[in-house]
Request: fold
Amino acid sequence: MEDNKVKDFMNKVKAMEQGQKLDLSSGEDLSIGIMNLISIEEHLFFSGGKTGATKYFELLNEVRKMRVDLMKSMIKEYEGEVWCISKHLLAASMRVMEVGTKALKNNEKEKANELFKKSYELYNMCWALNLGLMEGKDLKKIEIPEKEKPMIKEEKTVFAKMGALVGKALDCCRE
Reply:
């Protein structure tokens, strides 16, 4: 990854910390809504398949149209497969989170925590992709600049590194 991209992003994070707005909270809320719409699409598909009732497929189409429209407001510019990758990252994040929730319900706390971590990393990867912080060729060589390491704990995996950077900026609790 180009050091300049990481530096530019970290400058945005620092500006936000000093009171300048980088308002991603609405985008975060929208992304969670989109994740749920993707989940609804999946449930409508399986309901249609299990029952043979085509009304579920008709509803699926309506939900899909809404999801596509909302994704356009979240993902304004993209190249190649970024749109589809973003959709699948959000969908994977939602599903892994749900499996984590079931593990937690079954008192499998360690497994749940690991799944929640992976879900969050997938979610952050979607944001990293859409904020222009990564390209496919960058996946293996993400490095956090030395001067930023005190702000962000050093991570080992690609997902964890991007998650650390994006997670620093995506703090919906900031006013």
Summary: Confidence is low (pLDDT under 50) at residues 138-142, 170-175. Helices lie at 3-17, 25-51, 55-74, 82-105, 109-130, 158-169. The chain has one domain: 23-169.
